[in-house]
Amino acid sequence: MSSPAPKSPELSDKSKKYDRQIRLWGEHGQTLLEAATVCLVNVTAVGCETAKGLVLPGIGGFTVADGSTVKEEDLGNNFFLDPTYLGKPKAFACMQLLQELNPDVNGDYVEESADYILANRPNFFDSFDLVIASNLNEKTLLVLADRLWDANVPLIYCRSLGMMGTIRLQIREHCIVEAHPDNRQFDLRLEHPFDALRQHLDGTEVTNKVPWLLVLHKYLSIWQKQQTDGTLSPRNYKEKNQLREAIRDEMKADEENYEEAIKAVNTAFGAGQIPLGLKAIFEDDACDQLSKKSNVFWIMAKALKHFVIHENKGHLPLPGVLPDMTANTDSYIALQHIYRQQAMQDADQVYHKCQDYLKQLTLPADTIDKRSVRLLCREAAGLSVLRGTRVAEEYEKSSRLLALVEDNELQGNLTAFNFALRAYERFLSEYGNIPGECTVEQDIGRLKSIAGKMMSDLGMHATISDDVLHEICRYGGAELHAVSAFIGGCAAQEVIKVITKQYKPIDNTFIYNAITTKSVTLKL
Amino acid sequence: MSVHSPNPALILQNKRWNGLRNVLEREGPFCKDDFSASSDNLEFLQTNCKLLVIGAGGLGCELLKDLALMGFGNLHVIDMDTIELSNLNRQFLFRRTDIGSSKAECAARFINGRVPTCRVTPHFKKIQDFDETFYQQFNLIVCGLDSIVARRWINGMLLSMLRYEDDGSIDTTSIIPMIDGGTEGFKGNARVILPGYTACIECTLDLFPPQVNYPLCTIANTPRLPEHCIEYVKIIQWDKESPFGVPLDGDDPQHIGWVYERALERANEFNITGVTYRLVQGVVKHIIPAVASTNAVIAAACALEVFKLATSCYDYMSNYLNFNDLDGIYTYTYEAEKSEGCLACSNVPQTVTVDDPNTTTLEDVIKQLCDSPRFQLKNPSLTTVMKDGKQKTLYMSTVKSIEVATRKNLTQSLGELGLQDGQQLTVTDVTSPSAMIVQLKFQGNEIEMV
């Protein structure tokens, strides 16, 4: 080999520090995270634990908003307050102790409550990439959530009370290219080989040294000829077994690629079609009616749709990812090359269509780069769009809520606790004090009447059990650190998903019961 | 060692515990039947309850914080590791200036400074440096480990500390509950183990994902993936060329640089793409991705179980929680079952089936002990008592001189070694602090399924 000896690159200091997470969301995910700023409304243990989960991985910046001062009872559950700050502004204290975790992150604070900001300078929130709030009363929550909805700023709202915790994500629209599915199906196109693949398959002799894909193709072709109805691949257990037997019959001892071909019969077929999620994206109005203000995701989605329907006979662009197969190096690399080349070609076609649309919209050509289109094409089968709902909608009658009631019972203990926590927040708004802070018995009655009215206002003919309301009052407003750490950890990851546009966030309410260690996610 | 004995009256006056006191001093409809709401509960957590946290890494840092703020006043922590740059994205008790220092000592210092009601005692040591007299002093043990071997070892230790009544039942006062957490990327689990009563680590060994191993012939002759090229340099080329005259050290950037350059050369030669510096590091060091959030969640789930067990305020989890937040947030709790034939906690003698004692060698038996999902041993040492009553060391890899003396036995057949059907072998391994008895079963006419 005459090529010069490769030189080892120096990884940057940041790249080393964040190595363990960059392995998950990549340098491009890290770049988005480092460019983002969030606002933490209300200093609570759950809020601070959420912020901690963002400061450590290196979010760009955070601003803490809280109008109160540090009291002794705040020290028991919040790691980001300590006795030296007693009497000082909470926002300042927790900003300092959070910022100290990571010098890469900018910390800021305002000594103002959410109510004050909303009343006096509500546009304060508009510049953030996301707002995290926790343990508010009902009135403040609804005003804040509406403000953020109008400003198109996503909101993560956390509750942590006693052994209960919830996370609510309010976001208008969230488009995900890299969902990172746990079990990715390889898209091999054996049923519909593209020209280059067909030529390669037809022109290569099947030996015990070639990848199983060639073995499978050989016997699939024979099997296809035996089908009278033009079936291209085995559809059921019986047909798959026919194919497996056909391969086994021809297999000599110890042919690993034949063994692998037999195993692959179950998973090798069926990819490349338009999955339901993608179909919905193609039929979405946002995909249909592009405008200058369209998210680039929708421009690329429309180009993708055009390619699939008009240029590729209904098949997705080829992802070009080949699983490892026992084979000699040359035959594997040759096959891999064919898949990769086709994937590039497909993506280039989609890219050109994107450029056509950009021109029509009179947007600059560099609005969309080739790299993004290649990524979109590789991930086409898993593209996903989340359309959120307003928090305030949950406080109106809706069919989504009615579905939670069955035989006059709320479905499951977790749902009941979610509504009990809402009744708790209404209690805070109406009485101005915390249920169970002083007397448990009396407050159970008051909470029960609030809960009863709340449920009937929502048109939900169900009651929350006395036990659940008793448990809520028993806490007397106690926020337990470990429950907040659990919820804060989850919430931080949801924020990272929203910011990096990778992995699917919750849609839209996560409820956790630490007594039973059970959880559920509801779309409210 | 500092002894911490705060005044109980002061604890209860301290407003910092107002919230926790509501939960511990009020009756509730979901409390455990034998829970008695009283100020004694918090006093117990603050003064008498002694916990051991094993590991001061991603989970350990979180556990110490969570337990300190859940009212526990007396914690010990063991960790043999020192702090590295790549820990700082999640091990939040450490700063850049701490790189190179003991994790246990640094973590303890931070918690003691931040939470005045808690005293953490650090041990910059291996778990194997302590014996049962040390482990005996704790009410509960919480593990935040990344090593399966270490988990198996402490599991074995706690099982060996069980005492039995005359009727064979376990003396319940000898049980030290073990709460174990594990994470990998966006996935994690938390479990409660009551040694002898509920499924132990060995009962569910198959839950750990198998390590990826590439066949040697692929690495040497038919590489296809960048990983194959890296493994080639690591396994074959390093020893052959011995570039720095020392074994490969994954933490030495010069070493990784050399592996990267050679692996890239090999990849170019075979037209293989995708060798990156990060991938080289990952393959050489077996790096598992890790984020702050998953560690926070799993540690919190563990801390909550510790809190339930220590106070009886709620029933503890039975017994295994799976967590995953790749797609939304998913949790699933189920009861992992005790395995009837568990190596560690069932008291059932283990058998190894041998096809033909005249062709099966000692090495074959050792290979079976390492490869079989049931045993998964690492480098077992085998001794036995021969027919004449004499103790015989069949093979021992851990002591160099004995290894040399017993190496010849590896290639001998069991017949040649004079071992008989039903022969009992005493097997020791790094995966357990105590020895295990394995019985040889020579395959006769009856076929036993293993």
Summarize the structure.
The complex is a heterodimer of chains A (524) and B (450). Chain A is α/β, with parallel strands linked by helices and 524 residues long.
Can you describe this structure?
The complex is a heterodimer of chains A (524) and B (450). Chain A has 524 residues and is an alpha/beta fold. Among the domains of chain A are: 13-172 and 480-522, NAD(P)-binding Rossmann-like Domain (Rossmann fold); 397-475, no CATH class. Chain A is 48% helix and 11% strand. Chain A has an 8-stranded mixed beta sheet with strand order 3-2-1-4-5-6-11-12, sandwiched between helices. In chain A, strand 4 (130-134), helix 6 (138-151) and strand 5 (155-161) form a beta-alpha-beta unit. In chain A, 49% of the residues are buried. Chain B is an alpha/beta fold. Chain B has 3 domains: 8-185 and 290-317, NAD(P)-binding Rossmann-like Domain (Rossmann fold, 3-Layer(aba) Sandwich); 216-285, Orthogonal Bundle (Arc Repressor Mutant, subunit A), CATH 1.10.10; 350-442, Ubiquitin-like 2 activating enzyme e1b. Chain:  B, domain 3 (Structural Genomics Hypothetical 15.5 Kd Protein In mrcA-pckA Intergenic Region, Chain A, Roll), CATH 3.10.290.20. Chain B contains 14 helices and 13 strands. In chain B, the strands form 2 sheets. Chain B has an 8-stranded mixed beta sheet, sandwiched between helices. A 5-stranded mixed beta sheet of chain B has the order 9-13-12-10-11. In chain B, a hairpin with a 5-residue loop joins strand 10 (381-385) and strand 11. The longest helix of chain B has 20 residues, at 292-311. Chain B is globular. Chain B starts with 7 loop residues before the first helix and ends in an 8-residue tail after the last strand. Residues 445-450 of chain B have low confidence and may be disordered. The interface between A and B is large, with 94 and 82 residues.
